Amino acid sequence: MSKESQMRAAINQKLIEMGERERLKELLRAKLIECGWRDQLKALCKDVIKEKGIENVTVEDLVAGVTPKGRALVPDSVKKELLQRIRAFLAQHST
């Protein structure tokens, strides 16, 4: 396991233990709904289903077709706010 992987695992563990991970997930969910991302993603899913046909599309196809576009559609402001909150949490709880 690389040093970066170990660091990520330690940060994730700290976020989980302190309950911050759930708070961040709720914040992210609310921000994505607020900015219309969820509606955009729903439209993308409908497009993939129309393109392949309801009988021919699997959940895996849907995820594979939508994930890259969905990630790209997350507004920079949302990413920055989440990163800022994680940094603040780490600064406050550093050991």
UniProtKB/TrEMBL annotation:
Keyword Translocase: no
Keywords from the UniProt entry: Activator, Chromatin regulator, mRNA transport, Nucleus, Protein transport, Transcription, Transcription regulation, Translocation, Transport
Pfam families, alphabetized: EnY2
InterPro entries: TF_ENY2, TF_EnY2_sf
Subcellular location: Nucleus, Nucleoplasm
Top-level division of the source organism's lineage: Eukaryota
GO-annotated cellular components: DUBm complex; nuclear pore; nucleoplasm; SAGA complex; transcription export complex 2
Subunit structure comment from the entry: Component of the nuclear pore complex (NPC)-associated TREX-2 complex (transcription and export complex 2). Component of the SAGA transcription coactivator-HAT complex. Within the SAGA complex, participates to a subcomplex of SAGA called the DUB module (deubiquitination module).
Role of this protein: Involved in mRNA export coupled transcription activation by association with both the TREX-2 and the SAGA complexes. The transcription regulatory histone acetylation (HAT) complex SAGA is a multiprotein complex that activates transcription by remodeling chromatin and mediating histone acetylation and deubiquitination. Within the SAGA complex, participates in a subcomplex that specifically deubiquitinates histones. The SAGA complex is recruited to specific gene promoters by activators, where it is required for transcription. Involved in mRNA export coupled transcription activation by association with both the TREX-2 and the SAGA complexes. The transcription regulatory histone acetylation (HAT) complex SAGA is a multiprotein complex that activates transcription by remodeling chromatin and mediating histone acetylation and deubiquitination. Within the SAGA complex, participates to a subcomplex that specifically deubiquitinates histones. The SAGA complex is recruited to specific gene promoters by activators, where it is required for transcription.
Protein name: Transcription and mRNA export factor ENY2
UniProt organism field: Triplophysa tibetana
